[in-house]
Amino acid sequence: MIYCYQSTQAKTVHQMSSVLLFHVLLLYNPPMQLHTAVVSIWYLLKACYWKVSASQIHLGYDKTHCREDFWTSTPLEWAGRHWKPSYVKLYGYTVYKAVPFLFELRVLLDWMCTDTALSFLDWFKLEDIHGQLFVNKSNRRFEAEDDRKMGDIQPRWMRLLLGGLIVFGLIILLGGGLFICLLYTSPSPRDS
Q1: Tens digits of per-residue pLDDT, 18-49?
Q2: 4: Cβ–Cβ under 8 A, 6 or more apart, which residues?
C-alpha cells in the first residue's frame, strides 16, 4: 500500500521500524543468537531489502501509477513506436493469473489506493477486461506473424508436444502430491 500511495514518509517510517524491530528481535530472542546459517542468510536477505528500500527512499518513487502493472502494460504512446507482443509477457501474465489470489490481492490493493467512483466488483471487472484484452491482442499479433492461415489444421507435432507436456505436467502435479502424501503418512499402530 505504501508503494501505491507513493509516500516516502511512510516508507521511511516503515524502514526505520523494520530495522529497529529486527535488531531487537535478534538481540533479545535466544534462538536468534545461535549463529546458525539460517539466521545469517535471513539477516543477509533483510540487509539487501533494507539497501534497496533505502535507495527507493533516496531516489523517490517513479511516476507510474500502481495500476500500470508489468505484464499487461502496452506502451503505445512511447515515441510512436508500435507495441510488439512478447511471449515472456504473455506467459508471465498467464502464470501470474494462475497463482491463487495474487490477481485478486493486487486488484483489491489498487482499488483501495485509487480515488475512484467504481465499486470493487466494477473495478474487478475492469481489471479482468483489461487483462483479457491484453491476452487477445497478444494472441492476434502472434497469429498474424505465423505462417498458418485461418482454418488451417494445427501441425501434429505441435499438438503432440504441447498436449504431451501438459498431460505429463498434470500427472506429475497430481501424482507427485499423492505420492508425497503417501510417503509421509505413517500407518497407525493398530495396522501393524
Answers
A1: 899 888 887 777 666 666 777 778 888 989 99
A2: 66, 109, 110, 112, 113, 114
